[in-house]
Amino acid sequence: MTADPLLSVQDLRVRYGPALALDGVTFEMTAGQALAVLGPNGAGKSTLARAVSGLVPAQAGTVHFDGVNVTSRPAHRIRRSGLVYLPEGRGIFPALTVVENLRMAAALLPRDGRKPAIERGLEVFPNLAARRGLKAGMLSGGEQQMLSLCRAFILRPKLITADELSLGLAPKLVELVFDSLARLKQEGVTIVLVEQFVHRALEFADHAVLLYRGRVAWHGPTGSAKHEVLARYLGETAAATVA
């Protein structure tokens, strides 16, 4: 029996004024999967991540999360239901220590669950445990993204939408970000990943959606991502990297 989808996006359309950013985008994913959202600049990748999270309104179509239609719900209610959006920026407080950053996030939890949630987060991300007293601004870019992921994890999300977490990072730090995402996936968190490092995203994800001018150009298991599809929609250089 096929499991019910955790996230179901049907015929989603988003406009920015007269500009059509997304047009008829449809896909589904079940719990525990990782989905890579790929495409050239301006394809609508970040718009899709923000629309699913309730940060930009849909003009048409629906978003169902965990069996509930959340299309018109405000972003804070969608977040409380277990769908957490992580933007391009680090989403941390540089002047606070690692633990203080986690305490800020844990403040949304019941009081008796805050300390266990923080300790569980530090277990999943032992690199942060070793730096728990260090100010977040002193961490490397990859470690700051790890802290952002840990802040999201302690809220016990069902799904995390990660929007270009590796943007601007050196290759070694990009691997640190993907290692952190893999830890979350091992913990059962479903992940929607908007990512510029195409080859690494395809290695990590179970499925991929290729967007082109706001439409789904291709959708399927990452093992079926053919060279010619990537060459057509991401360019020959990206396709050659994946091949």
Describe the structure in your own words.
With 243 residues, the protein is α/β, with parallel strands linked by helices. Helix content is 38%, strand content 25%. It contains 10 helices and 10 strands. It has helices spanning 45-52, 75-80, 98-106, 111-124, 126-129, 141-153, 171-186, 198-204, 227-234, 236-242, and strands spanning 7-16, 19-29, 34-38, 60-65, 68-69, 83-86, 159-163, 190-194, 207-212, 215-221. The strands form 2 sheets. It has a 6-stranded mixed beta sheet, with helices on both faces. A hairpin with a 2-residue loop joins strand 9 (207-212) and strand 10 (215-221). Helix 8 (198-204) packs across helix 10. The radius of gyration is 18 Å and the shape is globular. The two termini are 34 Å apart. The model has no long low-confidence stretch (mean pLDDT 90).
- The tally of strands reads 10
Shape: globular
Give the neighbour order of strands across the main sheet: 6-7-8-3-9-10
Instruction: Please identify the structural class as seen in this structure.
Output: alpha/beta
Secondary-structure element sequence?
EEEHEEHEHHHHEHEHEEHH
Helix content: 25-40%
Residue fraction in strands: 25-35%
Give the averaged pLDDT, no decimals: 90
Number of helices: 10
Short description:
The protein has 243 residues and is of the alpha/beta class. 38% of the residues lie in helices and 25% in strands.
Task: Chart the SSEs and their pairings.
Layout (H helix, E strand, L loop, with lengths): L6 E10 L2 E11 L4 E5 L6 H8 L7 E6 L2 E2 L5 H6 L2 E4 L11 H9 L4 H14 L1 H4 L11 H13 L5 E5 L7 H16 L3 E5 L3 H7 L2 E6 L2 E7 L5 H8 L1 H7 L1
Parallel strand pairs: 3-8, 3-9, 6-7, 7-8
Antiparallel strand pairs: 1-2, 1-4, 4-5, 9-10
